[in-house]
Amino acid sequence: MITVGLSLIARSISDIWMIQNATVVESCIITMNRPKFKKALLKFFAALPLISVVNNVLKWSLGELKLRFRTNLSNHLYNEYLK
C-alpha cells in the first residue's frame, strides 16, 4: 500500500513537471529561441527514464495489490466454506 501511495505521488509530480517542461518547449518554438529549446529538450529526454521507472513501479505495485487482494479473498472464502 505504501508503494502505491508513494508511486502515485511520484507520478503526480512527474506529470506536473512534464506539463511545465512541455510549456517551456512550446514557448521556445514560438519565440524561436534555439539554445533554450535545446536545453529544454535535453531536460525532457533526460527525465524520460526516471518517469518510465515511476510508471513501471506504479504498474507493478497495483498488480501486486490486486494479486494480494484476490489471494486473501480466496483464502477467506475457502476458510468460510470449510467451517
From TrEMBL:
The GO molecular function terms of this record are:
ABC-type transporter activity; ATP binding
Q: Which GO terms describe its cellular component?
A: membrane
InterPro entries assigned: ABC1_TM_dom
Which taxonomic lineage does the organism of this UniProt entry have?
Answer: Eukaryota, Metazoa, Ecdysozoa, Arthropoda, Hexapoda
Domain of life here? Answer: Eukaryota
Gene source species: Phlebotomus papatasi
- What is this protein called in UniProt? Uncharacterized protein
Q: Which Pfam families match?
A: ABC_membrane_2
